[in-house]
């Protein structure tokens, strides 16, 4: 059944798709991974992987969605009828379900910290007290589950309203505000003493610190940061008009993603170095280290509130896309069904995510292969499902869609030079599968 809804404009699509990509991967995960992986060297490698692997895979998903104008399961059925390839779509749905179940936990942490910052509960603490506060917050079962529910509630309400009135309209507000808040924070961060140390950490590569693990981290992060491998972009591009240029849209989204990552680095690392703190604090960088950093600035908590708001906006725009891929399969373009399925699936994800929310408190003793429930869900998505999904899409597109049909799809809406198409085809057919298999091999060995 053909998708009934479409994006109202090209900019609406780009902002929504960029919002999907620019989430916790860019603002939460990239800074701490870069912090433990060499800073500038990691950023250079990540950028190369994003341009030469992430961009081709993003374009591959765009081709599948825009060509068929169908959801993430029916699109594969149309392109490869009477085969099992549509299971890529089912895998994407399962991945997004699991991903949003623990992603919403982090979204809840942002909400509770936003409340604590606004009410002054983060003022005047030292580094150890910030660490204790974070531990006490995420181990409290009532707080953890309640704020996770609030995050999912907002996500459900927006997706239930539809593509134009819900996702697109909300993204058109959130994304510009996100950019404005970033600029304000960067100006403040760069005016601090010793801020240039943080800038050099981000932009001056030290390749002596690069290891095989750093390279594989960068490759995995390039997939995670662009929301590829789960057919989210198949779903979003299915709402895209044939008049739009696929390459320009994909390139715009990649550039926005890289730009946001640079902004995140410029907002975080100069401030961290300015106060003599370490950038390698890991996943708790934003909740343990940054409150301490902002508290030492003039009007610091005002800036930290702004940072948490943009962090929340980025998390929500990604959450919309994860819920959307599931809802659009079940609703099949029916607005009434969309609203009903948004609530059913959204609440199911919330319930499924409760063990992840409790895995730092009452379920902290429950370990699977030595990992908490939250960490198992993260590992399953980041290290297994995303790479496997990306690999299957990289194999599917050149195998099941004729090269001439691929070029015709890229030519629709303005087109690209044939030599650029040839480069894309070579990367998606040969380079991407080999690179992804390297990640899978590393995961198996590790």
From TrEMBL:
**Lipid bilayer topology:** Multi-pass membrane protein
Keyword Transport found? yes
- Name the UniProt record assigns to this protein: Transporter
Q: Does the keyword Transmembrane helix apply?
A: yes
Q: Where are the transmembrane segments?
A: 12-34, 40-64, 85-115, 142-163, 175-195, 215-239, 251-277, 297-320, 341-360, 380-399, 420-444
CDD domains in UniProt: SLC6sbd_Tyt1-Like (cd10336)
Keywords recorded for this protein, A-Z: Membrane, Symport, Transmembrane, Transmembrane helix, Transport
Q: Which GO terms describe its cellular component?
A: membrane
Q: Which Pfam families is this protein grouped with?
A: SNF
One Gene Ontology term of the molecular function aspect:
symporter activity
Write out the coiled-coil annotation as residue ranges.
Answer: none
NCBIfam families referenced in this protein's UniProt entry, alphabetically: Na_transp
Q: Where in the cell is it found?
A: Membrane
Using the UniProt record, give the first listed, main subcellular location: membrane
Q: Which family does it belong to?
A: Belongs to the sodium:neurotransmitter symporter (SNF) (TC 2.A.22) family.
Q: Which InterPro entries match?
A: Na/ntran_symport, SNS_sf, YocR/YhdH-like
Specify the domain of life of the species encoding this protein: Bacteria
Tell me which species this is from. Neobacillus thermocopriae
């Amino acid at each position: 059944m053909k998708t009934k809804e479409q994006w109202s404009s090209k900019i609406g699509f780009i902002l929504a798709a960029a919002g999907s990509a620019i989430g916790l991967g860019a603002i939460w995960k990239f800074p701490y991974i870069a912090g433990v992986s060499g800073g500038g060297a990691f950023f250079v490698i990540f950028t190369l992987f994003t341009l030469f692997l992430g961009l081709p895979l993003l374009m591959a998903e765009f081709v599948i969605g825009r060509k068929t104008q169908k959801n993430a399961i029916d699109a594969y059925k149309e392109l490869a009828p009477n085969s099992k390839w549509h299971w890529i779509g089912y895998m994407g749905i399962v991945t997004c379900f699991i991903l949003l179940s623990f992603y919403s936990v982090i979204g809840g942490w942002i909400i509770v910290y936003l409340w604590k910052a606004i009410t002054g509960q983060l003022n005047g603490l030292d580094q150890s007290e910030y660490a204790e506060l974070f531990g006490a917050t995420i181990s409290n079962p009532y707080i953890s589950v309640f704020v996770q529910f609030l995050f999912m509630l907002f996500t459900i309400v927006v997706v239930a309203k539809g593509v134009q009135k819900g996702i697109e309209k909300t993204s058109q507000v959130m994304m510009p505000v996100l950019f404005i808040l970033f600029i304000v924070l960067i100006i403040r961060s760069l005016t601090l003493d010793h801020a240039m140390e943080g800038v050099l950490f981000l932009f001056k590569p030290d390749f002596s610190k690069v290891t095989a693990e750093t390279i594989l981290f960068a490759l995995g992060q390039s997939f995670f940061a662009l929301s590829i491998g789960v057919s989210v972009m198949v779903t979003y591009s299915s709402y895209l008009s044939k008049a739009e240029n696929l390459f320009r849209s994909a390139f715009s989204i990649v550039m926005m993603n890289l730009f946001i990552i640079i902004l995140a680095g410029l907002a975080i690392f100069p401030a961290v170095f300015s106060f003599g703190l370490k950038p390698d604090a890991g996943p708790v960088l934003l909740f343990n280290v940054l409150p301490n950093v902002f508290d030492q600035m003039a009007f610091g908590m005002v800036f930290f509130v702004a940072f948490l708001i943009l962090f929340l906006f980025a998390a929500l725009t990604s959450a919309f896309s994860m819920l959307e891929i599931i809802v659009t399969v079940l609703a099949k373009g029916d607005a009434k069904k969309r609203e009903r399925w948004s609530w059913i699936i959204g609440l199911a994800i919330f319930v499924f995510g409760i063990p992840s929310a409790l895995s730092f408190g009452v379920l902290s003793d429950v370990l699977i292969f030595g990992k908490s429930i939250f960490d198992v869900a993260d590992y399953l998505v980041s290290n297994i499902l995303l790479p496997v999904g990306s690999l299957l899409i990289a194999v599917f597109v050149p195998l099941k869609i004729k090269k001439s049909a691929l070029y015709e799809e890229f030519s629709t809406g303005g087109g690209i030079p044939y030599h650029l198409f040839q480069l894309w085809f070579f990367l998606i057919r040969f380079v991407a599968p080999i690179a992804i298999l390297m990640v899978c091999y590393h995961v198996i060995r590790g």
